[in-house]
Amino acid sequence: MARPSAAKPTTSRGAGKDAGAAKAKDAKSTASHGAAPDKGQLLDFYRSMLLIRRFEERAGQLYGMGLIGGFCHLYIGQEAIAVGMQSVKTPGDQVITGYRDHGHMLAAGMDPKSVMAELTGRFAGASKGKGGSMHMFSTESDFYGGHGIVGAQVSLGTGLGLANHYRDNGNVAFVYFGDGAANQGQVYESFNMAELWRLPVVYVVENNQYAMGTAIERSSSETHLYRRGASFNIPGAEVDGMDVAAVREAGLAAAEHARSGKGPFILEMKTYRYRGHSMSDPGKYRTREEIDEVRKNRDPIDHLQEKLEEAGFADEATLKAIDAEVKGIVADAAEFARTAPEPEASELYTDVYTESAA
Ligand SMILES: Cc1ncc(C[n+]2csc(CCOP(=O)(O)OP(=O)(O)O)c2C)c(N)n1
Ligand SMILES: [Mg+2]
To answer: Which ligand minimizes its atom distance to the CA of 100?
Structure first.
């Protein structure tokens, strides 16, 4: 499968209010962010993506052993998006996403032990063992959840952008949602307000080609999701979501647009999930060959590994050392999540209501 080009931007606002999607699609990018990530950044990206991959593989195993209850949606295959976009964030910028959230939490810097312990329902978990896979939150890490209702995070994230605008704090809200969520009505109500009020929001559509068992071609009349803002005059760009450097480059341009008062921007990340929708997905809607083809030719971690080796930035020993370090972190997190105590029954009555300070 051919690797799509890094970013195909649209500039519907620049092309005039009534510029249609087709015209916008062909517009060229004016933003250039020069410096490609350096050796240190690329090695950091590699380490973070590998941490997410190994964490998710281990979570899958713990689920299989019956240690994780409820839903569990793995992020394997999509790692370059959370990691590349996180590198664009400045302190105070918020991240909000749906239920496929573990990778975003790790990229945001949340402790792997507290995330894994939440999956196993332990008191030391990020939500004291009461939230599980889909409901973690960490304002210290600027992470605003973890949401189980498809598309809900788009309205909430637009609200984060409104708060930034109101407080004039220079922050941007990064709002992630899937190709299936892109067909939700509240997404478009949010788009309208965000553009009308020039809110600092970057909408990141993680187009992994499927919504549960439904392929995008079967559910969407417009499958180029970066054009979905055209009728609101929101510019968008298609990005190779399997290439962490391309994600970062497009993310920088989008964040600059939003931060400078020009309003929202849509990034459509073309990606793929290797595992089922959730742990209970029999996977009858696609072939094994299709998955193998992406794994073999477009894997984001393999791609970066080749790049690091070609550039002479890492030899086998360096990569092995990173692998060993990551495996150690994940093993410790899993052991902690298996042995840490569950919440007391009295915890049922805490964190239900909160008193407002004002
Ligand atoms: C409002 C609402 N409708 C339906 C569901 C059931 N549901 C959960 S995930 C999902 C598919 C969403 O797919 P997509 O947005 O592509 O995200 P992905 O799972 O691929 O990351 C659906 C329909 C839900 N959780 N919330
Ligand atoms: Mg999807």
So the answer is: 1
